[in-house]
């Protein structure tokens, strides 16, 4: 495989013949287009399932009288499972193959969803949550997302942020549709005598998972790679960069884990008596707002830069998050939460493109998996801490803590990478006269390795 070509902005384009000798450029481009179509279709399916199940799971746990600590334990194990499975994906997906790993995880989503649908026995729920194939939010960053990000990173770097924006926009829209659909069981029960309510509707997850497994079967076959390439994870320079990113992302993720979607349903029901049907509408609207913001981020990143888009859109959203519990009533709290959703996820496409830019193409799956695992390494404690803060501090404490921690992350990531990543991903980096990062600057952005270690 040829060495990746690095542009002046420090972002790598795929080598001309990613599949090796004998693979025509036309064939490679057709395979990349097919991969994009399949991945975005599967992402839409599972985002719908996650949006639907996140509302129902949070509502079911609250309605069945599960103690706060037990509900927090379910959310915690769910997050821990996603982190642990992401590490396994980073370690073994190169050996098993992305396509095979992807389909196994999708099948696991169906099995885990079936467990939540048929039992309320806490040990069984914890075991299903530990598989890492369920999510507390419609748009997750778990093991399947790691594989999807790596597969999508095969497109030219100049369009990568825009593609990630479209990828996330589809997830938000599908997730909002799933959240809206979660309000249907209550309406059906009112209209049709004897219609089921509650956890039985989670049997939709195995159905969606089966369809997703079938669609993923249309992914192009992966080109054969030598055994040494299959076993290689990250080079020393890339490992340093990924460690720094993972540590910073972990702090941001811990803040976010204090107010995951399932917890928000739980919190609004306990604080304001909000019914599941209302919260389904709220998160449906939130998904539409997030989809628009993801598309806007894909437009903004090539103009402002990846790092700048990550930070300058994130800080105001976190300040709004901290203010939610101080609103005088349910309507005002929901209004501010929706305003926050207009900005809260604009950093995601830029962050995904930023991670892909830091490593070689063959390292992107491992880099995405390890940075996503870093996010989930700190998240398991979040729901438990949030419910403890509600019980022992104040009802506002989870939101204040989350907003504060996430603002600190924004300042830290900007301070850490601004010297080497200023303007990274901006489309004017190739324009004559534009400021282009030097080798030393790219070294700082890539984790501190000497210039001689950087790809040329």
How is this structure best summarized?
The chain has 20 helices and two strands.
CATH uppermost class: Mainly Alpha
CATH topology: Growth Hormone, Chain: A
Under the CATH scheme, the architecture is Up-down Bundle
Oligomer: single chain
Question: How many helices?
Answer: 20
Looking at this protein, list some descriptive labels.
456 residues, Growth Hormone, Chain: A, 2 strands, globular
Give structural notes.
This protein is mostly helical. The protein has one domain (28-426, 440-449): Growth Hormone, Chain: A, CATH 1.20.1250. It contains 20 helices and two strands. It has a two-stranded antiparallel ribbon. Helix 19 packs antiparallel against helix 20. Residues 1-23, 226-231 and 428-456 have low confidence and may be disordered.
């Amino acid at each position: 495989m040829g060495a990746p070509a690095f542009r002046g902005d420090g972002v790598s384009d795929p080598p001309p013949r990613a599949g090796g000798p004998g693979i025509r450029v036309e064939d490679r481009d057709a395979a990349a287009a097919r991969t994009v179509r399949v991945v975005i279709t599967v992402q839409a399916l599972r985002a719908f399932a996650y949006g639907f199940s996140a509302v129902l799971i949070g509502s079911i746990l609250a309605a069945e009288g599960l103690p706060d600590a037990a509900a927090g334990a379910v959310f915690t194990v769910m997050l821990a499972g996603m982190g642990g499975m992401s590490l396994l994906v980073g370690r073994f997906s190169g050996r098993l193959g992305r396509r095979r790993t992807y389909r196994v995880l999708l099948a696991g989503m169906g099995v885990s969803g079936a467990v939540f649908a048929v039992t309320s026995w806490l040990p069984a729920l914890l075991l299903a949550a530990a598989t890492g194939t369920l999510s507390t939010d419609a748009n997750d960053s778990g093991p399947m997302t790691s594989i999807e990000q790596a597969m999508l990173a095969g497109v030219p770097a100049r369009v990568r942020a825009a593609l990630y924006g479209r990828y996330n926009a589809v997830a938000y829209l599908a997730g909002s549709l799933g959240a809206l659909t979660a309000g249907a069981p209550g309406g059906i029960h009112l209209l049709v005598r004897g219609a089921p309510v509650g956890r039985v509707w989670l049997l939709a997850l195995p159905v969606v998972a089966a369809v997703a497994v079938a669609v993923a079967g249309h992914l192009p076959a992966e080109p054969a790679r030598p055994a040494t390439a299959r076993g290689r994870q990250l080079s020393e320079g890339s490992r340093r960069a990924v460690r720094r990113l993972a540590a910073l992302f972990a702090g941001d993720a811990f803040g976010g884990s204090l107010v995951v979607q399932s917890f928000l349903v739980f919190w609004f029901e306990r604080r304001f008596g909000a019914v599941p049907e209302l919260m389904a509408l709220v998160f449906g609207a939130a998904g539409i707002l997030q989809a628009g913001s993801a598309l806007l981020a894909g437009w903004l990143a090539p103009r402002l830069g990846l790092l700048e888009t990550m930070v300058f859109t994130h800080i105001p959203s976190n300040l709004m998050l901290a203010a939610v519990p101080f609103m005088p009533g349910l309507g005002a709290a929901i209004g501010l939460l929706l305003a926050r959703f207009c900005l809260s996820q604009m950093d995601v496409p830029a962050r995904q493109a930023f991670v892909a830019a830091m490593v070689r193409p063959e390292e992107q799956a491992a880099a995405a998996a390890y940075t996503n695992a870093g996010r989930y390494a700190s998240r398991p404690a979040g729901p438990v801490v949030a419910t403890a803060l509600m019980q022992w501090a104040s009802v506002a404490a989870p939101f204040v803590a989350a907003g504060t921690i996430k603002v600190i992350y924004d300042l830290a990531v900007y301070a850490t990478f601004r010297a080497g990543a200023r303007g990274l991903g901006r489309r004017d980096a190739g324009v004559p006269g534009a400021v282009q990062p030097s080798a030393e600057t790219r070294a700082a952005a890539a984790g501190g390795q000497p210039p001689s270690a950087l790809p040329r």
